[in-house]
Design a protein that fits this description.
Layout: H1 3-22, H2 25-29, E1 43-50, E2 53-60, E3 63-71, E4 79-88, E5 93-102, E6 105-116, H3 118-121, E7 127-129, E8 132-143, E9 146-156, E10 159-163, E11 167-171, E12 174-181, E13 184-190, E14 196-203, E15 206-212, H4 214-219, E16 230-237
Length: 246
């Protein structure tokens, strides 16, 4: 084999090795679209490691921490084992597998998350809550922008809920369950006695929510009526894969 051809093949092999194995994590992070969860930019910086096994620091509002990932195929589906934790601010933890081919086709498997409720409650006008919410997502799958599988459990560990100028109540541990009803993913939240407090679902491109009288009864603000009476309803357009991106 001519010496020049040998050198060319060695160069190509080294280039492919760099692209496939040695490409730094920063190259991958630079291609992540701008994310704005809750309308606030999520900043990613100081990427390290390789594209298939790396870490990056993140900042969002007063929170900051690290995000790690490792390439992991599930069958023919590419994905990442991810782990997220905070180093400053509220204690936020997340770990699990995320894979797919894009914003309209993706899947979560065996995801565990623990979030301070205050991170969500502080975005509710004239409302607040403390305590933690824990989620265990066995599987959540989206195909062509539609949810095709949803199995998860949620738990609020209890705490104090406030509203208005002086309203407050101590809330016990609450349980939530996500499942499929026909083609719709449904979330049911129940009290310690098993009474349904609220029901949320995604159906035909809309987010629908019902709150039952059992919730204001639990807060001590109900005046008559039955626990299964619907006291609040909401329905608004919702598209998976669009929220949080710019």
């Amino acid at each position: 084999m001519p010496r020049k051809l040998t050198l060319a093949l060695v160069f190509v092999a080294c280039l492919l090795l760099f692209l496939v194995v040695l490409m730094p994590a920063a190259v991958l992070v630079e291609r992540v679209p701008q994310l704005r969860p809750g309308g606030v930019s999520l900043v990613l910086e100081n990427a390290r490691g390789r594209w298939w096994n790396g870490q990056v620091d993140w900042r969002w509002q007063q929170q900051q921490g690290t995000l790690g990932w490792m390439l992991d195929f599930r069958g023919l589906t590419p994905g990442l084992d991810v782990s997220l934790r905070t180093t400053a601010g509220s204690d936020l933890r997340l770990a699990g597998w995320l894979g797919g081919s894009g914003a309209q086709n993706w899947r979560l498997l065996q995801v565990r998350a623990s979030v301070p409720v205050s991170l969500v409650a502080e975005r509710i006008p004239q409302g607040g809550a403390d305590g933690r919410a824990d989620a265990s997502i066995m599987e959540f799958a989206v195909q062509d922008g539609r949810v095709t599988e949803a199995r998860a459990t949620l738990q609020y560990g209890g705490g104090t809920v406030t509203w208005g100028r002086s309203g407050s109540a101590v809330v016990p541990v609450l349980q939530g369950r996500v499942s499929m009803e026909g083609e719709d993913p449904v979330l049911e939240v129940t009290s310690p006695e098993g009474r349904q407090l609220m029901n949320a679902r995604l159906s035909e491109g809309r987010f629908q929510l019902e709150v039952f009288r059992a919730w204001p009864i639990l807060l001590g603000v109900s005046q008559g009526g039955q626990p299964d009476d619907v006291v609040f309803q909401m329905s608004q357009p919702f598209a998976l894969g669009q929220a949080g991106m710019q």
